[in-house]
Structures are given as C-alpha cells and as structure tokens.
Amino acid sequence: MLNFGRADYPVLVILRRVLRDSRGGAMLSREPCMSRSDTIDAAYYRRSINYGRTWSTPEPRSTGERRPSGMWRCHPRACYLDPATGRFLEFWVEGVLPNDDPLEGMRQWNIFYRVDAGPALQVIHEGAAFDARHPLPGVYTGRNCVMLGDVASLPITLPDRTILLPAITSPLGRDGKLYNPTGGCTYTDALVLHGRWHGKRLAWRAAEPVTGDPLRSVRGMDEPTLARLDDGRILMLLQGSNGGTTALPGWRWVAHPEIPRSGPPSIISRRRLTAPARSKNSSPENLTQLHYNLLGKDSRDEEASAR
C-alpha cells in the first residue's frame, strides 16, 4: 500500500506508467487512489526523464469538487503515445453526480482528452447536430453516458493515422430511459470511436454500438479492448457477465472485422452478439464484416451477422 499523504484511511492505489518518449526515456506515473468502488478520491502524477530510475515529487490532481448541481467527479483513464505523430494523449471521464452516487455516472459521464498537456477537449462527434450535451449518436448527457473502462479502452493507431478508441455506452430504450433488460447493476454496449487529426486536435466519428445478448450476458458488453493483427484485421475483446448466475456459462467474447482488399477498414456496423449462430452478411455496402468468436464450453468458433 502506497500513501502520498492524501488520505488517512485505507485506499487502493493503482500504478500506471506510460512511456512518454522512447528516445529520451521520459515516463509518466499516475497513481489513482480509491476508497470505494468506482470513485477516484485523488490522483498523483510523477515524471521521470531516465526510464524510471528517479521520479519527481508526486503532484496531486483534482478529481472531485462540490458544485451547486452536485459532485463533479473526474476519473483518469488511458494515456497514449501516438506512434504516428509522437503526440501524447491523456483521456479521462468526468461528470456531475447529483447525489455523488457512482451509478449516477451512467447518465452523466462524458469522455475528455488533452494533447501534449494542452487544454481539455471533449470527445464530440463531428457535425453540427452534436454538442457537449449530445456528444455522440444516441448519447444525451443526463439520460445516458459514454465512458472508458478502468484499465481497458486503450487506443490504437492504424496505418492511415486514424486513432481507434474503444468506449462504453449506457444505451437508451424505446421509452427514452436507460435500457436494462436483465435488471442487473448496469447494462452497457461497446463502441469504437474513430479519431482523425485536424491540426493539434482530433475529429471524432462513432461506429455503431456492439451489443450483447441479454440472455447470455446480463450486463451487456463492457471493457472493450482492441488490437491490430498482423494481417490488418482489428481484434476486439469484450467482457460479459453472468451476474453470478451459475445457469449461465462463461463466455469469451471476441470480435474482429475483415479488412477489404484495398483501402482502410470502414466503421464497424451495428452487430449483436449471439451464440450459437452461423451466418454471413453479404451486403456490398459494408466494407467491413464483423465476426464474433464465442468460445463456450465446446470451444466452437461461431459467426454472427448484423440484425
């Protein structure tokens, strides 16, 4: 247990270090401190210029502030050194929780980032229809949210310099309220955000959500992680949940799009994870076909098409 003098009660300290410059040996260490689930009480930043042999004095960052409308919370998330530009990106989620209940974040969280220690920028879909309160298709602050996983949601860079950021949304039902068909603690979809450099900031577009089958995952799809395979395909790993119900088997959810023979991968189309099923989407309009391998008790690989 580490303590930098912030708290006089037990806290969980998560160490995260990011290589800042592979040539110069600069590194960043970030230590979020948590005293309860899904709440970061404090975050401490340290820097090294010699590959971690020595570190600067910890610098506290504000992660909470009482405001008239509630408690503003800020949770540090992924840091990323873009190999295509050498720019350093830091991501976080923030929102105002009326009663400081972590579950209120499912209606309040939004994603923010900064480039090379610059100003804070919100991830907002390009186009005049979107703004800070309606940042992405299907996301309306105060009704639902978009967020990043605690330790997942790490970006990757494609050969065309596009940055893919895996994210999480709390979907809305037809009644305009949070969709939770299973009555679990939360229910979420996965989402891939596509960022392209425009000067020193990113222009964002959102892929359609990757949705789960509530009969097989009571909390939907969560904690998406991406990887680019040697053959150019994008692998997505997803976390499901059986909610402690032993009648539901454990599944490993995997999704990867096929890359067209020419040109970069298109935005992933909306898909629903189901198993067992085997079909194929032959629509010529879809440059990307997304396949899901559901490794169940019999370890069979299955494919599911869009619904």
Task: Provide the descriptors you would attach to this structure in a database record.
307 residues, mainly beta, 21 strands, disordered N terminus
Can you describe this structure in just a few lines?
By secondary structure, this protein is mostly beta strands. Helices cover 0% and strands 40% of the residues.
Give an overview of the whole structure.
By secondary structure, the protein is mainly beta. It has two domains: 1-61; 62-295, no CATH class. Helix content is 0%, strand content 40%. It has no helices and 21 strands. Strands 1, 2, 3, 4 and 5 form a five-stranded antiparallel beta sheet that branches. A five-stranded antiparallel beta sheet has the order 6-7-8-9-10, with no helix packed on it. Strands 11, 12, 13, 14 and 15 form a five-stranded antiparallel beta sheet that branches. It is globular.
Secondary structure: number of strands: 21
**How much of the sequence is in beta strands?**
35-45%
**Count of alpha and pi helical runs:** 0
> What is the C-alpha radius of gyration, as a whole number of Å?
20 Å
Q: Please give the share of residues in helix.
A: under 10%
Spell the H/E element sequence: EEEEEEEEEEEEEEEEEEEEE
| C-alpha termini separation | 48 Å
Major sheet: 5 strands, antiparallel
Structural class: mainly beta
Instruction: Give the total of domains.
Output: 2
Poorly predicted parts:
1-11, 261-307
Mean of all residue-level pLDDT scores:
79
- The geometry reads as globular
